[in-house]
Amino acid sequence: MGTAATAGQQEKISLLKVLGPVHVWALGVGIVLVGEYMGWNFSVAKGGAYGSLIACWVIGLLYTCVAMIDSEVTSTVAAAGGQYTQAKHIIGPLMAFNVGLYLVMAYTMLEAADALVVGDLLKAVAAQYGADLDPRPFVVLTIAFLAWLNYRGVFMTLTVNFVITAFAFIAILVLFFNASGLVDGQSVLLHRDLLVDLPYGWIGVLASLQFGMWYYLGIEGTCQAAEEVRSAGRSIPMGTMGGMMTLLIAASLTWYICTGIIPWEYLGQATTPLYDAARLMGSVELEVMLFIGTMFAAIASANGCINDASRAWFSMSRDRYMPHWFGAVHPRYRTPYRSILFLIPIAVSFAFTGLLDQVITFSILSGLLGYTFMSFNIVRFRRLWPLGSIERGYVHPYHPIPCIVLGVLCSATYFATYLGYGTSLLSIMAFYILVSIWFVVRRYPFVKRGEQFTMPWPRPKGY
């Protein structure tokens, strides 16, 4: 009797509602800002400097649509799991399973890329002083420390994220003010000499869309905090849309600084372009600040990715889409601790490959599949529960224009990815088809359909 009562009591333990708009901003921007410090510049190699700028703004429009759509649905479906929970309520189990995997894979591989950046940056700095540093221990240490932080509680995790993300954003502003001459009146930017026409034509611009996603990839992760915010209708839209505006500013400034200091042929291959730009300016203070900013951006991103991937895995396990054992909540820290621990070796194994561009590509493709789902999801959501039928925390304007734009831009980005990474695109598509078959044949019998719908909504229109 005592054991049964204890088990029943543990089953009722839930996640804490302790977060506000600032924490949502820290989660979204924290995951993404590393894209301003590295990764985005691979778009320069594809389409040149101007091609990268076009990709920055076009993909910025894509993510603005994502943020608007996500803010409406998530402020209404306020539960952990984000897009997975939306798919479960609005479309069905098979789509929910796939969307949940998209989230776990996108964030886990992004986490691996972040840890790689930390290790590679430390190795590069050590090489300046004649030392040969093995980056792998720092990769493991970074992931292990951040997993421990997430294990101990979401409030502390995202408070730390806010502090280090804010520093990384301020570092970009400081570099911009110094490079453009707004501090001492002497600009070091050489856009007139370094900028050239599109080196590969418009096909290069199209190809650059793939890595243009790195400017913003992960902002949709704010949805994973829906069950832990004090007011979903206020915090999710404010944190997500505020984060998107922050990223648009940071992305534009980053492009402006780097293309004015580094020739595009070298910029397209750089591992840490903002740090390299600071080094070329010859200021020790700026170099140190951008070194810290790059480290903080990568750490904040990995920290947020652990938070989001574990919430998605936890939500799937709680609904028995994955083994129910992973759906446990820590009785003291109120975190999905088993999901956090389970994903650590997966992230480490991806990071140990050392293939930064491949890891980024797999993360981008998993995210892109999730964005494609959103364009269909919002149409069905509005059709089943029209405006006025249920209470919404936020209503995105101009429907259905954002979902149409999102669908068109996703299609263009698939083609862009195929141009440079066709094998990776086909491989990951095959992977998701195979796991879908596995889910239908092996896992679906464990799913309790009657317990899936948890929102207090009226019967959908037409049912």
TrEMBL record:
GO terms for molecular function: transmembrane transporter activity. One of its GO terms (cellular component) is plasma membrane. Keywords: Cell membrane, Membrane, Transmembrane, Transmembrane helix. The chain crosses the membrane at residues 18-38, 50-69, 90-110, 135-151, 158-179, 199-217, 238-257, 288-314, 335-353, 359-379, 400-419, 425-441. Pfam families: AA_permease_2. Coiled coil: none annotated. It is found in: Cell membrane. It is a multi-pass membrane protein. This is Uncharacterized transporter. The lineage of its organism: Bacteria, Pseudomonadati, Pseudomonadota, Betaproteobacteria, Nitrosomonadales.
